[in-house]
Structure formats: structure tokens, C-alpha cells
Amino acid sequence: MKPKTITSKALFIFIVGTLFYCYEYFLQVAPAPMTAYLMEAFHANATQLGLISGFFFYAYTIFQIPSGLLVDRYGARIILTLVILICAFGTLLFSFASTIWIAALARFIIGTGSAFAFVCSLYLISRWFPSYYFALMVGIAQFLSGLGAVAGEAPLAILIKHFGWQHTLWMLVIIGFILAMLTLFFVRNQPKDEHVTEDTRHAPSVLTCLKMVLSKSQTWWLALYGFCSWTAMTGFAALWGVPFLMTSLHISTLHAAEATSWVWIGMAVSNPITGWFSAHIGRRCLPLTLTAFIGFISLLLVLYWTPSATWALWTLLFLIGVSASSQSVLFATVQDITAIEYTGTANGFINMAVVFSGAFLQPLIGKLLDLNWYGTFLGRIPIYNLHAYHIALFILPVCFLIAILISVFFIKETYCKSMKNYFYQ
Question: Which pTM does this prediction carry?
Fold first, then answer.
């Protein structure tokens, strides 16, 4: 039986288990303030840099469904410990990389470990908290991940400026080992009186899980919405936002990273609020539509107006982050329509679609920048003008427009209730 109230032990396990989600977001966005350093170190153009960064998302995408299946069968504790160590190893390899392909391999390894972070957080929430609080707790998990992303922008840029990008990565390796030990000693899969068993003899087979999840039309609509609504985070905030703002406003890497941090702050602050709002009004589709609309308008203004006034720029970037708070409602909707024995697989599939936006868009935007490049260099670093960025980044508001249409016409309302036997068809 699920616990009727939120206990202090549940909160402690949730925080420790979700610290990895915070850590992997730091690693995910780390290339953004490093763009110039990485281009110089690897003699890379925008396409190649997008490829290096994109390898994180290739692995993250590939391992989403396997992560859900493994967590469904074996729980979160041991798996979290192992994947944190994998991330630390990949970060260490990246710090010693001497070629583009070694750097890409290291990012792939980091992405492999990171693929388990969100699914494990969802697993722990579903087993330690009442279902009524699911959207709120997902929002809090996203809040913690947002803190990690914020730290991966301006604070990381400061560390890189003082210690160099390689030495800074070594610090992250040490943090990874500490997190692995905390997880091993303190995280538990479920309460002792929880009736969900970890005996894998009666767990659904891999094929059964996949069949049940992938045969439902709502799975695909939710996945497509997740892809489109997250493009601003992976395509803009996680990589190309910093160089775009540097070009558009003629500011330094540090100031551009500081501004981009407001996207992640917006996501962090708004996720618990949006999750609470969804539960409060008893609706899922309305918050999904509103957040996508906010992202569409604010991103258009940042890309094609780009106000020089600090307060206006930071406000719009904050609102782009608010659009990402749709994720707390998106995964709560998945919870509404999925039986508990399939939730890991379902969450893994939806999250795969979400992060595939990075695997697809980061190299694509880089390629579009190169196609519109006039051959200008600053030292050994290629310089792209504002026109090239306007063309390359136009795809992002288009994705938000698609997300709005999906949430209005194709995602079925669950009214924040279990609809496993009715709507999931």
C-alpha cells in the first residue's frame, strides 16, 4: 500500500536520489559556457561542436527505454550508484580528450549514465509518495535539476575562467564519486510495507512492457509533445543560447552564460508551481497548452528582438524556462494512464522523445550555422553572424507551435485521475 502521508524518510531518500538528476543536468549543459574553449581545443566548427555535445543526447535517447525496463525490474538504488560512476568516468575521459571523436565518446558515456536519472527519480516518487503529490514532486525534481543547470552556466564559466575547463571537470568527477556513495548507503527502493515486490520472477517481460506502452496512441502524442516542448532547453539553453547572445548583444561568455542561467531558473522555479497548479485545477491539458504558448511567444521575442535592457532579456529568458515546466504535468499525465508495472518503461519512452530533441537539434542547428557562415575566424574559432543564428534557430518556435496544437487537439484530458482502463487507448 502507498504511504498515506509524506514522511521525512521519503523526503530524504527523494533528495538524495534526485541529487544525481541535478548533477547530470550540470554535465548536460556544461558545453554551453565552454563553446569557445572546445572549438579552440579540438579545432572544431559549429557542426562538429554540435556533434560532440549531441553525443550526450544520442546515448540519453538510446538508453531511455532500457533504463525504464531495468528500473522496473531491479529498482533504483543499485542502478543509480552504477550510472553515477559511469558519468564520473565519462567526465574524466572528456577532460583528457585530445580529438573530436574521443570527446564525443566521452559525452556518449556521460549520456549513457545520465539516461537513468529522471526515470529513477520518477520510480522513487511513485513508490514513496501518494499519487496526489506526483506532479508536485516531479516539479520539485525538475526544480533541483534546474539548479544543476543554473550551476552549469555562469558559475561554471567562472570556474573555467579561474581553473581552466579540464581542471574544472576533474572537480565534477570527485563530486560524482561522492554522490555514488551517498546513493549506495542511503537510497532504498520502497517502504518496507510497500506491496510492490522487487521479485523479478513475476515482473512483466520486456516485450510485454514495450507492447503495452507502444501500442497506445496517447503514448505517441505525449512523446511528440515532450519532444517539441523541450527543444528550447536542448537547442537553445543547453548549447547555442550562449553564443547567440554573445553575437546578438556583443557581450562576453560570462555575461551570456549569466543571462542563459535565467532559462534554467525559470524552469526550476516554475516546475513545482505548474505541477501544483495542474493538481489544484484538476486539469492536465490546460497547463500543457499555456506553457507551450509562453515558450512560443518568449522565444520569438528573444530570437528576433533580443532586448538589450537586462531586465527585459532576463524576463523573457525566465519565461522560456517557464515553458519547460510542462514536463511535470507531462509525466504526471503518463502516471495517470499507465499501470504501475509499466511506468518505468512508459516514462523512459516519453523521456527518450524529450531528450531526442537535443540529439536531433544540436547538430542540425550547428549544420545550419555552417551553411550560413561567411568564413570569418577569430583566431582559430569560427564566427557566425546574427543572420545565421536567426535562420538556424527558427525551428525552435515552430516546435512550440506544434506542441500547442498537440495539447489542444490530441492529448486526452485525465482530470488528474487514474484513467488506465479508459483513456489509455
Answer: 0.83
